[in-house]
Specification:
- The structure is a single chain.
- This protein is α+β, with helices and mostly antiparallel strands.
- It has a single domain, classed as Arc Repressor Mutant, subunit A.
- The chain starts with 14 loop residues before the first strand and ends in a 10-residue tail after the last helix.
- It has three helices and three strands; from the N terminus they run βααββα.
- A three-stranded antiparallel sheet has the order 1-3-2.
- Strand 2 and strand 3 form a beta hairpin.
């Protein structure tokens, strides 16, 4: 199965580490921590580690996508 295939049922259960998400979004881990504390970033606390559900991350990315209008009113 293609690891980038988002129709894979196991993909919804995949988790990212804080470092993995920081690399994906090109942000610092401190920025992610601030977003967690503010409630902007859902996370799981597993032992001492933090993990993010890939489906939550993809939803945030989809909500953040900017779509430009096809034409402007004259």
């Amino acid at each position: 199965m293609n690891p980038l295939d988002h129709t894979d049922p196991n993909m919804a259960n995949r988790l990212l580490t804080r470092k993995g998400l920081a690399d994906r979004w090109q942000l610092s881990t401190e920025t992610l921590k601030r977003r967690e504390r503010c409630g902007l970033l859902p996370f799981l606390k597993i032992g001492r580690g933090v993990r993010y559900r890939i489906n939550d991350i993809e939803r945030i990315e989809a909500d953040a996508e900017v779509h430009q209008g096809a034409s402007l009113a004259a």
